[in-house]
Design a protein that fits this description.
The complex is a heterodimer. Chain A is an alpha+beta fold. Chain A is built from 6 helices and 13 strands. In chain A, the strands form 3 sheets. Chain A has a 6-stranded mixed sheet with strand order 2-13-12-4-7-9. Chain B is globular. The chains are: A alpha+beta, B mainly alpha. Chains A and B meet through strand 5, strand 6, helix 4, helix 5 and helix 6 of A and strand 1, helix 3, helix 8, helix 9 and strand 5 of B.
Chain lengths: 251, 306
Amino acid sequence: MRVLVVILALLAALPLRAEEVVAGLSQDRVSLTVNFEGSDILIFGAVRREAPLPEDSALDVVVAVEGPPMAAVIWRKARRAGIWVNTERQDVRAAPSFYAVAATEPLRDILSPEADLEYRISTRLAIFEARGTIDARDPAAFTEALIRIREREGLYQTHDAAVDLQRDTLFSTRITLPKTIVEGRYAARIFLLRDGNVIDEFETFIDVRKAVLERWLFNLAYEQPALYGLMALALAVFFGWGASALFRLLQ
Amino acid sequence: MQVYLPIAETSVNAFTLLGVGGGVGVLSGMFGVGGGFLITPLLFFIGVPPAVAVATGVNQVVASSISGVLAHLKRKTVDLRMGLVLLIGGLIGSLIGVWFFNLMSRLGQIDLIVQLSYVIFLGIIGALMFQEALRALLRARNPKAPRRKLHTHTWVHNLPLKMKFRASGLYISVFPPLLVGMGVGILAAVMGVGGGFILVPAMIYLLGMPTKVVIGTSLFQVTFVAAFTTMMHALTNQSVDVMLALFLILGGVIGAQIGTRLGMKLNAEQLRILLAMLVLAVAGKIAFDLLWTPAELYSITIPGRF
């Protein structure tokens, strides 16, 4: 019911265009609390249409959720004197810390390479290698490895046919944020596609924040490291000494 | 139940953490070892980034040795003078270790360095413990076997800048204890251990200290070096995770109490062989990971994160 009200409100606020997309999120805040185990976000929306439904082309919806981009270094191991050592590196200027793409059909079938380049929708195009610092012989393999590793950790996701589009109007999909996500503003972009081209785009945000205690500890560690270190020591002394004193009392 | 670790920025099962802390605590209570050399690699195995595991492991060492050092101070079984010389060496070593640790982190080789140190030191210690335990077993069966001479004069005793250590009944150069302390400080910073497993044999066999002050004095040095190293890691690379430390410490202090009581009931000498085998198994697992062709040749590091 709430979902429907949100959609209707969004629809009413739209300016006129042939086909437009509006969307909402089941939650726009994620709190990284002590027992955070990951989170499911429902992304839903509707297509608003002024003209009659075109007969000759199919409508597709793509949802891309992107976590804060970060620099990274990708290492490749090689065997040196019998053991496996990091030997070659490739720097990445910015790679999203989280990236999930869900679509009504496999991306390559519904998105033209030109549109992909312009809007940077597929995972590969969301990663920006650092030019000039490439000392690897095979830079593409490094970027593929980055995607492969993060896919395995659930940080990069590609879901073909995961967006449920009903009667060319209502759509919804579910994106799972794993427990290892970092803090920051996550952008959810929703694209409306026809004939391989993007005909409309909608953007909304999810705020991922550490909960109060975790936030406080993290800030303290980076902003007041001396105080934080003393606190860690005080805890250790208190529990280390306290436990044995307690057990002695119990005897 | 999952716990979110604010510094490591990942979730770990709370019972796994309590289990690691508690299990190692039982062993440390039973055998009188610090246990840092088991906690840190076990943390690697459950997916805690090595930098966080090392810095937090060393924080846990403070908790596991503080009550011991207080008890020994009360009983006056600490050679304070020797302890201070070892400590000065330890602080210098810790500074070198933390510097080296941060340098290797920047070069992307810290995981390798930590793993290699573990293979080497756990391998040596495990082998020595195994041999020692076997010998103790044989001695128990055959009490007439020759015992090892405790106090021998070696080259160590002929260096300059001699100092009197009354509690230990020694008149030796300050360089050997300084160097021993320094070595232990480096290990504390790089491996996240107390270093008692190196310090105790070095004090007995290298410095020739009497056994009655060895444990107290080593605990004294280890506690302060671990505290200093925790501070240095917190100050230079922010890798101490107090949430992680809290669970390890809680498990550890309770486990240690259980272990102490178990140790009195069971034949610890025989169980020592099991501890030696456990240490060797951990060393073997890390060695295997370094030698075996990894399933994934690539890895990712994020500058400024773990």
